[in-house]
Amino acid sequence: MLTPDQLDPTDPEGAIAAAAQRCSNWGRWGADDVLGTLNFLTEDKRVEGAGLVRRGVSFSLSQRFDMDGPQKGWRRRTNPVHTMLDTGTDAERGQGFPHGLGGADDVIAMPLQASTQWDGLGHIFDHGNAWNGRRAGDVVTSAGDSVTGIETVADRIAGRGVLLDVGRAIGTDGELPDGFAVTPAHLRATIEAQGDSARVGRGDLLLVRTGQLTRARRDIAEGRGWGEYAGGPAPGLSFTTADWLHGTEIAGIATDTWGFEVRPNEFDVAFQPLHQVAIPHIGLFLGEMWDLDALAADCAADGRYDFWLTAAPLPVTGAVGAPVNPIAVK
């Protein structure tokens, strides 16, 4: 297991290769597996999650999908564009329907990872290798992901959710500063501070709040806009959490940041190295840009940090990621 003091910032290749070997789940569920860590989310885990509903209060964990989002066009990622095809004005003037019927209709154009979303197993490769040791080119072509497309898990992501509010437990005023690397020690300290309901284990859906979205919202309210929320410096998971993520056997993990892991990354020259281990080797589903603030406030108020969570991705056939409106119920 790599500790923060052992991380050599000059050797991302070596660190990624070593972590990939230590944390590999290739072949664990057979050569044909397309579910990765969602294999840990069993029927029993869903029953456990459903039993956590006591008050019936629900929280949407999704940011909005609109033209005022944080995207700046990186890799052609833009904010959603919503266009009306039929409106009330059209209805008033007549749309050709009988007996006075009128209607409105609309369309949206957007990258599938423009707002709250899951990264699928076909999203990231390591040296041309996809999840479970397949060749990347055999998995994802111009026609999409024909093996691990996001539609393969459309009925899977529902179970016990756990919030680790690291921003509140470790940070200042509920927030971690940009560039803060969340280590396994920080995660363990947060669990200890939050108590038994924050225990994390096999089949859980883990949510990590850093507070960056809270800060972005404050900047927007004060007229500064989104700033660098999409792709810029951010708090996030340290590369050294790879072994912890593997060892806890969680089914998926999501954060309130654009990129899940700390940015700038911890190596001198690197781009999302934790993704390079977590997705193609661990087979872990990563969620990004989730809105955890209202849920976190409620958890802090009642002292309970686990809940029923349903977070099915939009089953776009062959997609390597997809939008989601996660719902947490307590």
Biggest sheet: strand arrangement: 1-15-13-7-9-11-12-4-14
Give the strand content.
Answer: 15-25%
Number of E-state strands = 15
The CATH topology name of the largest domain reads: Glucose Oxidase, domain 1
Estimated radius of gyration: 20 Å
Overall shape: globular
CATH class of the largest domain: Alpha Beta
Quick structural summary:
The chain has 330 residues and is α/β, with parallel strands linked by helices. The protein has helices at residues 12-23, 43-50, 88-93, 136-139, 166-170, 184-194, 212-221, 242-248, 273-282, 293-302, and strands spanning 58-60, 81-86, 105-109, 117-119, 140-141, 144-145, 158-165, 181-182, 205-209, 236-237, 252-255, 285-288, 306-310, 321-323, 327-329. It has 2 domains: 4-71 and 112-329, Putative cyclase (Glucose Oxidase, domain 1); 82-110, no CATH class.
Describe the overall structure:
This protein folds into two domains: 4-71 and 112-329, Putative cyclase (Glucose Oxidase, domain 1, 3-Layer(bba) Sandwich); 82-110, no CATH class. It is of the alpha/beta class. Helix 1 runs parallel beside helix 9. The strands form four sheets. A nine-stranded mixed sheet has the order 1-15-13-7-9-11-12-4-14, sandwiched between helices. A two-stranded antiparallel ribbon has the order 2-3. A two-stranded antiparallel sheet has the order 5-6. The chain is globular and about 70 Å long. Strand 5 (140-141) and strand 6 (144-145) form a beta hairpin. It has helices at residues 12-23, 43-50, 88-93, 136-139, 166-170, 184-194, 212-221, 242-248, 273-282, 293-302; strands at residues 58-60, 81-86, 105-109, 117-119, 140-141, 144-145, 158-165, 181-182, 205-209, 236-237, 252-255, 285-288, 306-310, 321-323, 327-329. One of its GO terms (biological process) is L-tryptophan catabolic process to kynurenine. One of its GO terms (molecular function) is arylformamidase activity.
